[in-house]
TrEMBL record:
<dbReference type="InterPro" id="IPR001267">
    <property type="entry name" value="Thymidine_kinase"/>
</dbReference>
<dbReference type="GO" id="GO:0005829">
    <property type="term" value="C:cytosol"/>
</dbReference>
<keyword id="KW-0067">ATP-binding</keyword>
<comment type="similarity">
    <text>Belongs to the thymidine kinase family.</text>
</comment>
<protein>
    <recommendedName>
        <fullName>Thymidine kinase</fullName>
        <ecNumber>2.7.1.21</ecNumber>
    </recommendedName>
</protein>
<feature type="active site" description="Proton acceptor">
    <location>
        <position position="85"/>
    </location>
</feature>
<keyword id="KW-0418">Kinase</keyword>
<keyword id="KW-0237">DNA synthesis</keyword>
<dbReference type="GO" id="GO:0005524">
    <property type="term" value="F:ATP binding"/>
</dbReference>
<dbReference type="InterPro" id="IPR027417">
    <property type="entry name" value="P-loop_NTPase"/>
</dbReference>
<dbReference type="Pfam" id="PF00265">
    <property type="entry name" value="TK"/>
</dbReference>
<dbReference type="GO" id="GO:0046104">
    <property type="term" value="P:thymidine metabolic process"/>
</dbReference>
<keyword id="KW-0808">Transferase</keyword>
<keyword id="KW-0547">Nucleotide-binding</keyword>
<dbReference type="GO" id="GO:0071897">
    <property type="term" value="P:DNA biosynthetic process"/>
</dbReference>
<dbReference type="GO" id="GO:0004797">
    <property type="term" value="F:thymidine kinase activity"/>
</dbReference>
Length: 221
């Protein structure tokens, strides 16, 4: 089985990933934790509520089947795989996971974000939507500032919702704050980006809410 649990940022995906690992491990099953671009910069699955487990880093060119074969060679059986930040997998890596599920009956649990800051599917997430046996939205609801369900990860810089830029910006420096690693402009290195989850309407309008300040909002009714 190949499963994809998806949701916006901060909806508790990594926490759920670690819970599922715990549930399987308690049954005596042997799992392997994989991660692509963990927010801590270390190969580990770390949830924002403070639980952390070591994981293997999947790099851009990693063949996941080979990773599993190496485990077998080392005498370690693998019953299940937990993959965090699965949106960053390449489509080919998602296909490798499907192959592992089909050919050697490994249970694969992928966790990730569906859409990027431009509201388009990440290529890895798209391939998971196409191939997974089960798709499950993570049930912990993240709300927009207006109270509506938040499904869009807005990238914010200087109080503005950004519409253009690289899809992947990594190296988190704290909860919800990301340092840009893009170097398209000389000053981009010092730009502090953050993400804010918004409902579709406020994502579309670029409205970060009254707390965002900066725009001197007038509420006319
Ligand atoms: Zn809203």
């Amino acid at each position: 089985m190949l499963r994809f649990c998806y949701g916006p940022m901060d909806c508790g995906k990594s926490t759920l990933a670690l819970q599922i690992d715990h549930n399987h491990a308690r049954q005596g099953r042997r799992g392997l934790l994989l991660v692509r671009h963990d927010r801590s910069g270390e190969p580990q699955i770390s949830s924002r509520i403070g639980i952390t487990r070591q994981a293997l880093e999947v790099h851009a060119g990693t063949d996941v089947r080979k990773l599993i074969r190496e485990q077998w060679i080392a005498g370690r059986h693998v019953d299940y795989l937990i993959v965090d930040e699965a949106q960053f997998l390449s489509p080919a890596q998602v296909e490798q996971l499907a192959e592992l599920a089909d050919e050697v009956q490994i249970d694969v649990y992928c966790f990730g974000i569906a859409t990027d800051f431009q509201s388009h599917l990440f290529p890895g997430a798209r391939r998971l939507f196409e191939l997974a046996d089960e798709l499950q939205p993570v049930q912990v609801e993240v709300l927009c500032w207006c109270g509506a369900p938040g499904r869009f990860n807005a990238r914010v810089s200087d109080g503005e919702v950004l519409r253009e830029g690289d899809t992947v910006v990594v190296a988190d420096t704290g909860p919800g704050v990301f340092e840009s690693t893009t170097s398209l402009q000389p000053e981009a290195n010092s730009t502090t980006l953050r993400y804010q989850v918004l409902c579709r309407r406020h994502y579309r309008l670029g409205d970060l809410g009254p707390a965002a300040g900066k725009r001197g909002q007038l509420r006319l009714t």
